[in-house]
């Protein structure tokens, strides 16, 4: 039991920096992805702006849910 508790404490002390690193990596990837998406949106002038806003909102929700999935 004591060894298990010690291992759990080590895991808890190590996990916050790992999640922070994962979140920063995800933010960098998302920023690059958003730049590519905005370049594509400039080309898609035929599509309605409402569809573009809806598409960006779905991308934002996916980007928000991705770090949460990475934590778990």
Task: Output mean pLDDT.
Answer: 65
Major beta-sheet overview: none
Number of helical runs? 2
- The helix fraction, in percent, is over 70%
Structural class: mainly alpha
Separation, N- and C-terminal Cα atoms:
24 Å
Low-confidence stretches: none
Number of folding domains?
1
Broad shape: elongated
Strand content: under 5%
Count of extended strands: 0
One letter per element, helices H and strands E, the order comes to: HH
Question: Roughly how many Å is the radius of gyration?
Answer: 19 Å
Walk me through this protein's architecture:
- The chain is mainly α and 72 residues long.
- It has one domain (2-71).
- It is 90% helix and 0% strand.
- The protein contains 2 helices and no strands.
- Helix 1 runs antiparallel to helix 2.
- The model has no long low-confidence stretch (mean pLDDT 65).
């Amino acid at each position: 039991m004591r060894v298990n508790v010690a291992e759990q404490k080590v895991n808890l002390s190590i996990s916050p920096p790992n999640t922070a690193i994962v979140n920063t990596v995800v933010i960098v990837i998302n920023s690059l992805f958003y730049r590519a998406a905005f370049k594509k949106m400039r080309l898609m002038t035929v599509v309605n702006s409402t569809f573009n806003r809806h598409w960006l909102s779905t991308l934002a929700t996916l980007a928000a849910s991705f770090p949460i999935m990475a934590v778990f």
